[in-house]
Amino acid sequence: MTADILTPQELKKADPVFGQLSFNDHEQIVFCNDKDTGLKAIIGIHNTVLGPALGGTRMWNYATEWDALNDVLRLSRGMSFKSAITGLNLGGGKAVIIGDAKTQKTPELMKRFGEFVHSLSGKYITAEDVGMETADMDLVREVTPYVTGISESKGGAGNPSPITAYGVFMGMKAASKYTFGSDNLEGRTVLVQGIGHVGEVLVEHVTNEGGNVIISDINEARLEEVSKKYGAEIYRGDDVYSVPMDIYAPCALGATVNDETVNKIQAKVIAGAANNQLADENIHGSLLQQKGIVYAPDFLINAGGIINVYAELENYGKQEIIRKTENIYDTTLEIMRTAETSNITTHQAALKVALERIEARKNQK
Ligand code: NAD
Questions:
Q1: Confidence category of residue 13, pLDDT binned at 50, 70, 90
Q2: Helix, strand, coil percent content, the chain, rounded in steps of 5
Q3: Considering only CA atoms, which of 306, 206, 210 is closest in space to residue 248?
């Protein structure tokens, strides 16, 4: 089982689908093409042992179709483990739409995508991810019931990002308790990389608790806005990983812990929202462990969003959403202690719990 990012040369050498390094016994991969709307999408269904494969749709201007395939394979696999460790009866799936969300996303394209989702009869249920808004899911809802993350006025649980941020905050506090002996973030320096839907709310939580927040983003206007709102310091240099900090919170895109950055990172704790933060979960997970950096597994602490959308399927309310999200604190602490006693990485410890739950259910069937 591996999750490496491949170079374009390596990607071309591998067999097109089943031979991909990121292919991990996925159950089904669906390629969707519609000339009229310009839709080119891939739906990845990794595992449905625990339930229907639920996971968001990402719209991204991928450099190559190989990159899109690699991304959907990695992301859908992550969803299986995220739902499993969170105790949800959901499998893992994800979709990617190839294109620029700012210029190529149209209502017709979203509805056509919804029709492809519908053709899977509920085996895959979609939601929003990067490049998607609640309004896009409302459009998908017009053609299929197999969508979550729709707006509250349409009976949905609304934007999942604030709950995701709250879960990440819980995971960050647990990792701080484990590392520093206290979960109080007062006086701690936290670098939040990416201050989008999730990052901004995380900045708010940390600031409210008295933490010193440094923010970095490629969007200058957002930097100004968020800095003004919460008094956060802006980092504008080109070596964000070398900034002195207690906690690094990756909230932009994945694979920021990689060969180039791992030896620069100054933090004692890594806890953020981005999916697939470790470029190679075995190599970089072990390097962090050797360096004494405590890593809060991404798929464990960013589960708030899936908890929020699962409420739409199971009909539970805000109180239960908050309870389940706060539980991330206990699970994170438990995983860190297990990793220490078993001398494995925190990522491996979390993966083990998730895989055991999937295996146990499989054996019951
Ligand atoms: P978003 O698109 O709203 O925000 C991402 C931010 O990162 C943007 O402000 C963007 O300008 C910035 N960014 C992009 N590249 C950057 C770079 N190289 N350096 C610094 N900043 C950069 O996305 P979001 O919804 O806030 O999600 C953030 C991450 O968390 C994503 O990886 C997403 O997959 C993951 N995640 C989100 C949710 C959710 O509920 N939204 C749930 C689970 C995981």
A1: low
A2: 45, 15, 40
A3: 206
Contact in structure between 346 and 293 (CB atoms under 8 Å): no
Residue-range domain boundaries for the chain: 17-77+91-159, 162-356
| Residue 3: per-residue pLDDT | 43
Q: What are the tens digits of pLDDT across the range 160-216?
A: 899 999 999 999 999 999 999 999 999 999 999 999 999 999 999 999 999 999 999
Contact criterion met (CB below 8 Å) for 148 and 136? no
Please confirm, yes or no, whether 94 is among the known catalytic residues.
yes
Fold of 17-77+91-159: Rossmann fold (3.40.50)
Query: Could you count the other beta carbons within 10 Å of the beta carbon of residue 242?
Result: 13
d(CA 285, CA 278): 7
Query: Ligand 1 centroid vs 250 CA: distance in angstroms?
Result: 9
The pTM of the full predicted model, rounded to 2 decimals, is 0.93
Ligand 1 atom with least separation from CA of 199? 26
Terminal Cα distance for the chain, rounded? 24
- Residue 365 CB neighbours (<10 A): 5
More confident residue, 12 or 186: 186
162-356 matches 17-77+91-159 in CATH topology: yes
pLDDT bin (cut points 50, 70, 90) of residue 19 is confident
Atom 42 of ligand 1, residue of closest alpha carbon: 305
Catalytically annotated residue among 94, 111, 268, 324: 94
Q: In what order do the strands lie in the sheet with 189-193?
A: 233-234, 212-216, 189-193, 247-250, 269-270, 294-295
Is 162-356 a domain of CATH 3.40.50.720? yes
pLDDT at 2 over 70: no
